[in-house]
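Suppose you are handed a protein chain with no further information: no name, no annotation, nothing but its sequence. What can you learn? This example shows the usual starting point.
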Amino acid sequence: MSDTPNATTRRRGRPGRRLLIGGVAVVALLAGAAGAARAWEGHHRMWNMRDGIPVQMIEHRVDRMLQKADATADQQARVNAIIEAAAHDIDPLRAEMVGTHEKALALLEAPQIDRAAIEKLRADRIAQMDQVSQRLSKAVADAAEVLTPEQRAKLGQAVEEFHQHRPD
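A reasonable first move is to predict its three-dimensional structure. Written in C-alpha cells, the prediction is:
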C-alpha cells in the first residue's frame, strides 16, 4: 500500500477549508441576490412585492400591446377581466411571500442553523411560486384564446420587437 493519501482522504482531511469555501459561496450568493434585488428595485420603482399587484399598470401595458395586435375593445375588456381574475387569485400568495428575505436572513443569522426550517421555507416558497406559475400560465392561455391566430401572430411580433429594443 502507498503512504500517499488518495483524493478521498485529502477531501475528508480539510473540513475547515470546505466550510470556508461554503461560507464564502453563501455570502457571495446572498450578496449577489441583494445586489440584484437593489438593481431591480432601482429600475422598477413603480412596484414592489409588498404593495400588492399593480393591476392597472399591467392592464395599461397589456392594452398597449393588444392595440398593436389590432384587438377590439371587447377583446381588450375580456383580456383585462382575465388579468384582474388572475391578480385576485395570485395576490394572497404574494402576500404570504412578503418577508421571505427577512425570514431567510433570520434563519441564517441564528446562533444555530436550523436546516429543517431553511428547507421548509425553501419548499414552501417553491410550492407557492409553482401555484403562481400555474395560474399565470392559465391566464396567458385564456387571454390567447380571446385573440385570433392573426392577432396572436401580430402580438408575438410586437413582443419580439420590444425585446430587441431592451438592453440585456
